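Quiz preparation item.
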């Protein structure tokens, strides 16, 4: 198969979808790998390293998209890339289609085979390709939140850990999955007071044990949210309904009750965000805006700011799936690997993931029914 690795064009996105060792695995298995020039430079990989691993370096991204049978990316194709998608091409990347229905329609029109990292699902409903990025974003959410709370960044001038005689910051984390737990670990390490909410009581029990009772755990509902949002210095949104649009849990009325200079970091912005007053995505270069006196941060590619770490963490878990799709072709790969089949979002014009189909308001067709036709 011919595999293409374009350079990411999202603002401040410096990750790359394959590292030289992954390219070598693919070329040694008889595949051609086309890498756009400088695609890896932001993550510290030169064209020469890719060349030595067997890649062909393409000067033109357009020519690469035209020739590749499978495009492997990090972030979703942006409008400038829509016309590059080829009929029937396999696209493997983070897609987050619930937040970009326009892209969902393009992928359907192009009859692409669109596989989303974030819905590839393992045993016990785990999301093994999302998990390492969530581990990074969770750590970053607290780290960035601590910085934004400083008055120079517009925050209320509160030090996360406080000092003897002065209380620490109150960090409220909504969603106790991978982002929530990793954000909690860093916040506790900094000495903050953490309240974490989830709708899964078993999960809350696990988190309570994990942190040896050093956090406040709460069942998430509108009643408890109204109360905790008021006292948060730093509020972190970390909810996920896999494939679906993030539920709007924090209303504008709740935000109005927050303390001046409090900070909201909505990590779930990639799925549309959980905070009503977040009406736009922000970037690493211009990460915040203020509304009702509260700083809002809504960067959908947080790991993009630590591209070296994030590229290794991502490709550690993605490369095996790239190899499987290349070796078997998508039909056999989906048939033989349920995890990969769960990643299929749009195939030959059909929406084959039920939560994604619902989120973008399209009819759902089971994947096996679509595959029988081809
Ligand atoms: N902005 C960025 O750069 C990044 C964003 N993310 C996003 O962060 C979000 C969270 O990801 P993970 O922690 O990996 O997901 P996860 O699936 O591990 O955890 C989500 C948690 O939300 C809980 N939940 C569901 N409904 C809830 C509600 N109404 N109230 C409170 N909790 C609720 C679930 O029970 C679960 O424990 C996702 O949208 C993910 O895509 C992840 C990495 C990077
Ligand atoms: C998960 C995601 O959207 C990211 O790593 O950018």
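Solution:
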């Amino acid at each position: 198969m011919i595999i293409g690795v374009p350079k990411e064009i999202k603002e401040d996105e410096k990750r790359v979808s394959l590292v030289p060792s992954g390219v070598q695995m693919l070329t040694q298995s008889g595949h051609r790998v086309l890498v756009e020039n400088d695609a890896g430079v932001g993550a510290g990989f030169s064209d020469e390293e890719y060349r030595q691993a067997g890649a062909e370096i393409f000067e033109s991204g357009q020519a690469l998209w035209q020739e590749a049978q499978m495009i492997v990316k990090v972030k979703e194709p942006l409008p400038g890339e829509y016309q590059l998608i080829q009929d029937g091409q396999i696209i493997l990347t983070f897609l987050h289609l619930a937040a970009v229905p326009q892209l969902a329609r393009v992928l359907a029109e192009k009859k692409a085979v669109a596989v989303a990292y974030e819905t590839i699902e393992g045993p016990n409903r785990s999301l093994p390709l999302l998990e390492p990025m969530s581990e990074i974003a969770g750590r970053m959410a607290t780290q960035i939140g601590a910085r934004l709370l400083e008055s120079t960044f517009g925050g209320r001038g509160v030090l996360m850990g406080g000092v003897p005689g002065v209380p620490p910051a109150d960090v409220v984390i909504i969603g106790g999955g991978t982002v929530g737990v990793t954000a909690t670990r860093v916040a506790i390490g900094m000495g903050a007071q953490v309240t974490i909410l989830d709708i899964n009581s078993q999960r809350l029990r696990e988190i309570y044990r994990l942190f040896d009772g050093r956090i406040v755990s709460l069942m998430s509902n509108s009643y408890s949210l109204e109360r905790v949002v008021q006292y948060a210095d730093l509020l972190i949104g970390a909810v996920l309904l896999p494939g679906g649009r993030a539920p709007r849990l924090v209303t504008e009325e709740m935000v109005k009750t927050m303390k001046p200079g409090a900070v909201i970091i909505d990590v779930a912005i990639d799925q549309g965000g959980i905070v009503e007053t977040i009406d736009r995505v922000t970037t690493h270069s211009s990460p915040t805006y203020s509304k009702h006196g509260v700083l809002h941060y809504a960067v959908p590619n947080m790991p993009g700011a630590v591209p070296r770490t994030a590229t290794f963490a991502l490709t550690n878990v993605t490369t095996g799936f790239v190899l499987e799709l290349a070796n078997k072709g998508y039909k056999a790969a989906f048939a033989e690997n349920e995890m990969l089949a769960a990643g299929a979002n749009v195939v030959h014009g059909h929406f084959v993931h039920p939560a994604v189909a619902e989120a973008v308001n399209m009819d759902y067709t089971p994947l096996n029914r679509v595959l029988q036709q081809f």
